[in-house]
Amino acid sequence: MTHLVPHPLVAVLLLSLAASSQEGRPQRTSPGEGIVRVFVEFDSPPAAVAQQRALGLAHAFDKVAHENRIREEQDAFLESMASEGIRFQFTETPLNLAGGVWNRPNRFSFLINGVELALPASAIARLRDREGVKRVTPEEELRLHLDHSVEYV
């Protein structure tokens, strides 16, 4: 009998999915509110930047603890948004794994500290003015104009 050994990345993805499934659900947005997708980047440095700084200073660095601290900061920010009545929903990325399709919330802490949310367009200005927010970037749709191609040799 042949045993399949899963790739280590699959184990990491499953663990991160299990952790994210323990999170509380944000408030739902109402249809017809002019919902837009935005990426909210926070002021505190992501783990990769903090790790590089620590290495440059010859200090020890606990990546897991730093990413947990970022997650707590993100959670506090999102809870304050909900308490102020700003309705939002996480955007998700579908992951096709052997067990089916899993939707992973778009929350980031290693290369960039931020979250991608769907929310009313009217809330963007309020987000930009909040403490701890570095930048709010609305998602843009890009269309390719391929009316001609390179010539083949």
Q: Please tally the β strands and state the result.
A: 7
| Class per helix and strand makeup | alpha+beta
How large, in whole angstroms, is the Cα Rg?
19 Å
Taken in chain order, the helices and strands follow as: HEHHEEEEEHE
Number of helices: 4
Please tell me about this protein's structure.
With 153 residues, the protein is an alpha+beta fold. It contains 4 helices and 7 strands, in the order αβααβββββαβ. Strands 1, 2, 5, 6 and 7 form a 5-stranded antiparallel sheet that branches. The N and C termini lie far apart (51 Å). Mean pLDDT is 79; it is low at 1-31.
Entry keywords:
153 residues, alpha+beta
Short description:
The chain has 153 residues and is an alpha+beta fold.
Record the SSE blueprint.
Layout: H1 8-20, E1 35-42, H2 47-56, H3 63-83, E2 89-90, E3 92-97, E4 100-105, E5 107-108, E6 114-120, H4 124-128, E7 133-138
Antiparallel strand pairs: 1-6, 1-7, 2-6, 3-4, 5-6
